[in-house]
Predict the 3D structure of the following.
Amino acid sequence: MKSNFCIKLLNLLTVMTILLVSSCEKDIPVYDPPPPYEPPVETPDVSGPLPDDPSDDPSDNPSTDNPAVSPEDKKAWPLDVPLIGLWNHNLRLDVSELVEELGVNCIWTSDNMSSDLEWTSSHLYRSLSVPGIDYAMAKINRVAWGWTHAGSLAHAEWAASLSLEHSGIVGLYMNDFYDEIEEGYRTKDQWREIIERTRQVNPDLPIWVPVYPHRQQQNQAYDFDFDGVIVNMFGNKPEQIASLETHIYEGLERFPDKWAVAGVYLSSGATGQERWLSHDDFRKVLTFYVKLLNEGKIHGIRLFSADQFLSKPEYIPIAKEILATINTNEQNEND
């Protein structure tokens, strides 16, 4: 009887030891509350060297000096007027009065990723329906903000198809082009595939990409098939305002064979650190852009953004006053 009890006790201790060791080996985190569900994110194809991979053969990379490129290689500007654009990413915002006040002729739109959205339900349609708006820019948005590569391809086809029927769609904008590459959300080949898919549907739809000279993006290869650049300054820091002209000229000189639009943000910067341009700085930036436009060095201006103007309407009369000095006749003669 005593030996049976000892055997049972020994077995019990053995089981408890196994359980204790097993629980120690499992480093199981405890969440309170449980972690939120995160949908799977499409992983870019990163087989082969990544952009700017130091192990990549530099002889394969095109030079950023563009020795064979000159302004004579630039295609003729397709419009009779400069593109004076207003960025609007708020699909429900009525910009009619703002458009009338500013005198802009283009909306940089923000349709959601789609392949079959009805024309009359699109932001492109609503924007082109605003009195005074003759042109609209379609957009491929960021994977960082929820878009997928497959969805981007489908959206490019959708926008290019619409542009065949509606001449007011004057371009497809690749939002934060090199930022997506630098941050690992897209590969160069994925951007090339989006551009190629667009060309297959409408080879005449201009492709626009941004460049941020204060981030030294003009030193990137930009070895893609595109037509125009929007030269931006993002952050509105005092040192950026002080070096505005240098940065913008650097961006423009990098692309002598491309159409160019200069962009200004009323408020920009990292989340939680946004800076509003002072009235004087806004006047300085926009006056410089109009000077470039009147000299034929750029083909348009983009104002960011509609909702910022409406939240601080004191910027509207400043913009209206400066934009009124655009000499459209001189712009046309330079082209």
User: Anything to note?
Assistant: The chain has one domain: 78-334. The CA atoms of residues 45 and 189 lie 9 Å apart. The chain has a mean pLDDT of 84. The radius of gyration is 27 Å.
